[in-house]
Every structure is written in C-alpha cells, then in structure tokens.
C-alpha cells in the first residue's frame, strides 16, 4: 500500500483549473521526483497535499490519501497534527518558515513540543542533533534570530526542522536551490541517510536532473498543470517519450552519456 496516493487532483483559482486531474502514488521509502517547466503546477500540487494552498486557490476535485486518511477531509486541527510530525515540508520559499522575532531554537522547540511529550532537554538535544547533521553551528543557530543567519543557513535550519521528528513523508520543493553545491550535496546526503534509517518517502520537486538520476526511484513530468509522463527515473532518463521530458533531459548532455562523464555530481 502506498504511503501517499494523489487521486485525480484538480486545483483551481476560481476561474480555471491550474492543476488538472493529477494522479500519482508514492510507496513507503520511495524517492519520487516531480519535474516540469516553471509554472507547470509542481509547487501548487505539493501545497495542496498538505493543505497549504493560498486562500484564493482551492482543490476543485480529487483525493489525497496518506496512509488511510484522506487529508482533504481532515479538520484543520487534524491536518496540523500530521504536518510537521508525519509529513514534513521543505518549501521553495523557506524564508516564510520562521517568524522574524523569535529565536530559531525556540521556534523549532515550539513545533517539537506540539507533537511530542519530550522533556525540554530531550527536545533541545534532538534539535541540536538535527542542526549538526547538516553542518550547522548548532548552538549559535539555536540561539539566533532569523535575521542573524545567512540565507543558506536559514534554509538549512528549515530543513533541520523538517527532519527533526523523522517524518514518514518529506515534501521537498527545490530544497537545495539556494545552497552552494557542497552544502546542497550534504543536505541531500542527510535526506538519503534519513531515508535509509527511517524508510521515509520523499516527494522531491526539482529542476536538477542530475539529482533525479542520483536519488529518485520514480518520477513524473508536469506540463501546464498535467502529468504528461511518469515512470522509473531510469526509464525516463533513458527513454523519454514526451517532448517536454526530452527537452528537459537533453538540456544536460552528461545525463545522456554517463559512461563518458563518470559520476554525475
Ligand atoms: N498564489 C498564487 N496565486 C495565483 N496563481 C498562482 C499562485 N501560485 C501559483 N500560481 C500559478 O499557478 C501555476 C502553477 O504554479 P506553481 O507555483 O505550482 O509552478 P511550479 O511548477 O512550482 O513552477 P516553478 O518551477 O517556477 O517553481 C502558475 O501558472 C502560477 O502562476
Ligand atoms: Mg515551484
């Protein structure tokens, strides 16, 4: 049974459907990539899964089944209990993750407190561990206000927050776009390690096809709000069928000839 099953999901801005009849499922421990050109509906699909669509945008039809629950039918309180604990999100716009006037450690602590009965010490230890795992200076970040950190540190703090409770599903919307390549590789390594340890699934939105090649089990490609092609990452890379998939992959020559270029980083 899949951990997440998105069934015939359509999302509308009141005038028209922006995302149309999108279906896919993600198995336990599976790394599922979502690709597509800018504006194709990837982020809105991710936001709809966790019920974080902007107020004027709504799900017009479909189901989002997580485990055995239809997330679209839960009360606000019920979905809040799932978000952060069972499904963690790392969004493209990580700037919105933290409020400006509270220390980062305190903000993450509030979130952990909501979802666990851990003592203060246990919560702090886990938060510091999570920072350390992605090479953040843990004590300093814990004590800092958001404006005291660089953009990359802030993004990693958002990632640390997402990973701290070892969720069953991680929704990662271009999580490494703002990071330098070494930090990005480290963050992805941590995601991969967490997956190995906890068998969590990953819904991974990216433009970086090298990451699809390296990490994803399966992938789908979106165009104008629809999924136009899905399959194993390997088959999509080797035998793309739709023009948009061909276009995406042909933009990175090293993907076509991995044997000649060695390991793709
Ligand atoms: N808050 C919003 N209000 C109105 N329209 C929106 C909003 N967010 C997204 N859209 C529109 O919905 C469509 C899909 O947007 P979405 O953000 O899902 O694209 P995306 O595939 O994530 O693109 P990118 O790769 O650039 O992040 C786009 O046409 C976009 O303009
Ligand atoms: Mg997006």
Automatic annotation (TrEMBL):
GO terms for molecular function: ATP binding. Residues 4-249 form the ABC transporter domain. PROSITE patterns: ABC_TRANSPORTER_1, ABC_TRANSPORTER_2. It is found in: Cell membrane. Transmembrane segments: none annotated. InterPro entries: AAA+_ATPase, ABC_Ni/Peptide_Import, ABC_transporter-like_ATP-bd, ABC_transporter-like_CS, P-loop_NTPase. Coiled coil: none annotated. Belongs to the ABC transporter superfamily. This is ABC transporter ATP-binding protein. It comes from Bacillus changyiensis.
């Amino acid at each position: 049974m899949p951990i997440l099953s998105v069934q015939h999901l359509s999302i509308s801005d009141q005038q028209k459907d922006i995302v149309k009849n999108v279906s896919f499922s993600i198995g336990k421990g599976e790394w599922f990539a979502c690709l597509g050109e800018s504006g194709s509906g990837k982020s809105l699909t991710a936001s709809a899964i966790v019920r974080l669509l902007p107020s004027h945008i709504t799900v017009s039809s479909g189901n989002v089944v997580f485990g055995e629950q239809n997330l679209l039918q839960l009360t606000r309180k019920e979905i809040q209990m799932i978000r952060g604990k069972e499904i963690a999100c790392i969004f493209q716009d990580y700037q919105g993750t933290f409020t400006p006037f509270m220390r980062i450690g305190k903000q993450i602590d509030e979130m952990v407190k909501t979802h666990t009965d851990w003592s203060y010490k246990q919560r702090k230890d886990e938060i510091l561990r999570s920072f350390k795992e992605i090479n953040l200076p843990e004590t300093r970040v814990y004590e800092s206000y958001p404006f005291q950190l660089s953009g990359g540190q802030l993004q990693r703090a958002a990632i640390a927050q997402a990973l701290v409770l070892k969720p069953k599903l991680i929704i990662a919307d271009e999580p490494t776009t703002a990071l330098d390549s070494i930090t990005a590789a480290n963050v992805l390594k941590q995601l991969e390690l967490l997956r190995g340890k906890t068998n969590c699934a990953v819904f991974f939105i990216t433009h970086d096809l090298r990451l699809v090649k390296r990490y994803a089990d399966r992938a789908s490609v979106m165009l104008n709000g629809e999924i136009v092609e899905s399959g194993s990452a390997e088959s999509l890379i080797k035998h793309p069928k739709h023009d948009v998939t061909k276009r995406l992959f042909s933009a990175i020559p090293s993907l076509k000839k991995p044997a000649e270029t060695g390991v793709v980083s």
